[in-house]
Amino acid sequence: MRFAVLARTLYPMNSNPIQLPAAATISDVERDTGVAKETLRVWERRYDFPQPKRDSFGERVYPFEQVQKLRMIKRLIDLGYRPGKVIQFDMATLQALAEKAADRRGPARPQHPELHTYMELCRSLDAHALRRRLSQALMVMGVKNFVIDLMAPLTAAVGDAWACGQFAVYEEHLVSESLQAVMHSAVFALPQANHLHPSPRPRILLTTLPQERHSLGLLMAEALFAAEGAQCISLGVQTPLPDIVEAARSQQVDVVALSFSSAMNTRQVTDSLKQLHARLPETVELWVGGGNAALRRRPPPQVRILDLHEIGAHLEDWRRSRAS
Fold it and tell me: What pLDDT sits at residue 6?
């Protein structure tokens, strides 16, 4: 099994301590944390953190511990904190602040009663058991309830654990692969749109921008769109903006739907949405969702912001507006 080989690599039989990941370049850190390169340099000068080392070519490289702290700082910024207020705190203090801020916001919907059980399965890294349990829940709950009541909060909990350093990068990847496998199966098993609705439109093109490599949000949205009778065309992740525009034209879609995780730089999100809206045909709407802070602050007015549990209502609004 792939996991067994990976486990032997990370946990050798001689029980030597696990080595931390190699230092990251500034581009790696930007992709990992969503903090722009320019911002990292400003923080370095203004706050004396991060404190990168230099490689043999004189380029910045960031130790693992600093990247981990930067993830937490970015998470707190998304929760409303200013960098100057939190950047000097240690990891324990940062994590306590993040948990306190999350408690103040409170859950938008009741959590699945077995969420803790699923998180323990994630931590055990037993991918087979996790997939089996999720597949069973999918059969019992149905696609819409599964995505909204279990998959979305579980994905958020795993992301929070990764940001807090409770999951290593490889552990988060293993869990994500399991979740993606279940979601791909769920989407594949849905009936074709024309069997669900007399008019299967809208035709929806789903993807992410090149800076966004996370796919779980996109898969959950696709499952909900398809369950509501929309016709979905998925390009997967990291599609260049000109290709999105060309695909929207050639496939004659009604909507382009994008997903943005909290890891993507907020300025890039806002700028990319403005550029994409300007280049899409006037008849094509732009719908976006995800946990990125840019979607909660000042998104472009021409963009429709979606929560997963509102997808059905948005589709009905779209159909009514076209019928009138």
Answer: 28
